[in-house]
Every structure is written in C-alpha cells, then in structure tokens.
Amino acid sequence: MDNNLIYKKAQAYVENLFEKNNNTKLLYHTLDHTKTVVERCKEIAAHYNVTEKQMLVLYIAAWFHDTGHLFTKSLKGHEEKSVEVMKKFMQENNAEQELIEEIAACIMVTKIPRNPSNLEQEIICDADTYHFGTKEFKDTDKRMREEYGLREEVVDKEKWNEGTIEMLNNHKFYTEYCKDLLNDKKKDNIRKLEKKLKHHKKEEDNLEINEASSFATKGIQTMLRLTSENHLKLSDMADHKANILISVNAIIISVILGVLMRKLEEDTYLTIPTLIFLAVAVTTIVIAILATMPKVTGGTFSDQDVIDKKTNLLFFGNFYKAPFEQYDKAMRAMMHEPDYLYGSLIKDIYSLGTVLGRKYKLIRLAYSIFMIGIIVSVIAFGIAVFIYNTSHPGGNSASTSAFPL
User: Fold this and answer.
1) Neighbours of 104 (CB within 10 A)
2) Distance CA 379, CA 276 (A)
3) Which of 149, 331, 351, 376 is paired with 284 by a 20 to 30 Å CA distance?
4) d(Cα 181, Cα 47) in Å, to the nearest integer?
5) How many C-beta neighbours within 10 Å does residue 117 have?
6) What is the pLDDT of residues 206-237, one digit of tens each?
7) 3-174: in CATH 3.40.630.30
8) Where are the beta strands (DSSP E) in 35-177?
9) Where in the chain is the domain with CATH 1.10.3210.10?
10) Angle of helix 31-48 relative to helix 119-128, nearest 10 degrees?
C-alpha cells in the first residue's frame, strides 16, 4: 500500500462522503470540523516528531472519526459507524489488519469517557477538543447546541451552559503541548461561561420579580377599571329607573290635569282621591329628579392642591374651569407618581359610590311613594265612589265615568 496515495484517497473519499450525504442537521460535525481536526493532528504530531506509521494512523483516524454522523440520526454510537466506514475504505485499499485496528482504536478513543493508551491516541483526543482552549469555543459551543437541539432534544440555554461547564471541568488535555498551549484559555472559557450563567440566573430572578410586580400592577389596574365600570353601569341603571318614574308620572299628571280636572265640577266627590293621586305623582317626580340631578363643584384647583395631592384630576368637576396648560402640567405630574394616580382612581371610585348610594336611596324612596300612593289613590277612589253611591241611590251612572282612570 502506497502511503502517499492513501493520504490523498482518504481525503477524497471523506470529502465525497460529506458531499453525497449532505445532512442539514450537522451544524458542528461538518467537513470543516473534520479538516480542522486533521490540521490539529498535524500540528501536535509535528511537535513530537512521530513516525511515519503513527502519522498515517493519526491522519486516517482524523479524516474518518466523524463520518459516522452522516449515517446515524442520534449523536450516540457514531464512533462505531465511523470505524465501520473506515474499515471498508482501508480494506478496499488492501491495508494490513494491524494498521486498521490501530486506526479503529484511535477513532474509538474519542468516545467519552476518553482513555488514550499511546501517543497517537492522546494526540487525536487533544485535536478533537482543541477548540476548548481557543477563542473559537464560543462559536463552536453555539453550533453544537443547535445541532443537539435538531438531533436529540432542545435544551434551554441555562441548562446547556451548566452541562458545558461540567464537561470542561471534567475534560483534560493529554499531551504536554496542548496543556501548555490551551489550558489557560480553557479556564478563561470556563470563567466566562460561569459569569454568563450567573448573569442569566440573575436576569431570570429579576424577570420573575418584574413579572410578579407587573402581574400585581395589572391586577390592581384591572380591579380599579372593573370597579369603575361597574359603578358607571349602576349609575346608568339608576338614571334609567329615575327616567321611567319621571316619564310615567308625567303622563299621569297630564291625564289628571287634562281630563279628570274637568270632571271635578260635576263629580266633586272625586276631588280628594284626585288630589292624592296628583300629590303622589308630583312627589315621585321631584324625588326622581333629585336622584338624577348632577352636583357640580368649583371646577378649579391650585398648584398647591396638586403638590399636596388633594385634588382628584380624574373628575371633571375639579378642573373644567381650569386652563388647559395648568391641567396638562398637573396630569403629567400625577402620571409620574403612582401613589397619586392610584389615589385619584380610588377617590374617583369612592365618589361614584357615594353618589350611587344617594341615587339609589332616593330612587327607592320614589318607588316606595309611587307604589304606596297608587294603592292609596285607588282605595280613595273606591271609597269615594262607594260613599257617593250609598248616599245617592239610583244616581246618574255617568258621574262615575271618570273612575276608570
């Protein structure tokens, strides 16, 4: 077997394998990575003046050590497949069995846990992990994580960094050349990862605090908004109930004044029931109007009121007479002070509540008067008609024509 020829054939064979079996999931274990390992093997081997046979073993092992990734879905077990691919190639080129076994041992020693037993195995182990002690480690680690996510499972950044730190701490270079050249930078890479991990955890803690604070803030805002909306809905309902009372009793008064009053000249016995009915309707309307009558305050505030946080800028009655510039300045000051802002919202809700309490109290009174008044009026009409019919037997039936009211 011609050694010079086998070097070229091995390179061409592996390059062709990567070209024919293009795997988009291989983001780290690419042909470029294989070429890098080959160059690192040459670099380390040159330092130790290895024999021609040792160089051949290293060279073939470096070219084939990751070819198994082209044929395995998982990251596990690729070393065995790489050995299988290498053996097929070497046997086709009539290589000696002893040489094949030495190359196979070099490929298998890259499998974790590594336990090299000779110089060439130490060299290929160090060449395969050479980047642990270089500035390129950040990039290679990122690509390895992305590939792992595609081929195994997606791992969050924090968990991956923890695993990487553990791997680097357990790792060691075997050749003195790599120890002297790469250990310091490897330690630096570990420190950077630890710092990054610590910073990430701190950010997560702050995020959790901010999320909790944001959740609490949103909860408060939602509570205040819903409470205010409910108060406004109740206020609309109260106004609607008052409007019903006003409308109904206005119609009753119109009928009484327009129809019944003309009948009183003939049917004087209906005067008292009619006056009771009219008094009830008028009283109900007055109370309903009082329930809906708005209360307007001064409409101005002073700068000192804003400083002392005494004025509620959310209620129009406190600012409708104030100039816009003063109101704008005061509102911006309030928006920069959460206590003042929330305090104003609380005052606004409380004010709505007190107004609602007054409204519903008056409306309840109006409904009670209306209900009792209707009953009393009907009874009064009945008594009046009864008394009249008793004292005037066989009287004109027309005289009772107004009663159906």
Assistant:
1) 22
2) 11
3) 351
4) 12
5) 9
6) 555 556 556 667 777 787 778 778 878 888 88
7) no
8) none
9) 3-174
10) 140
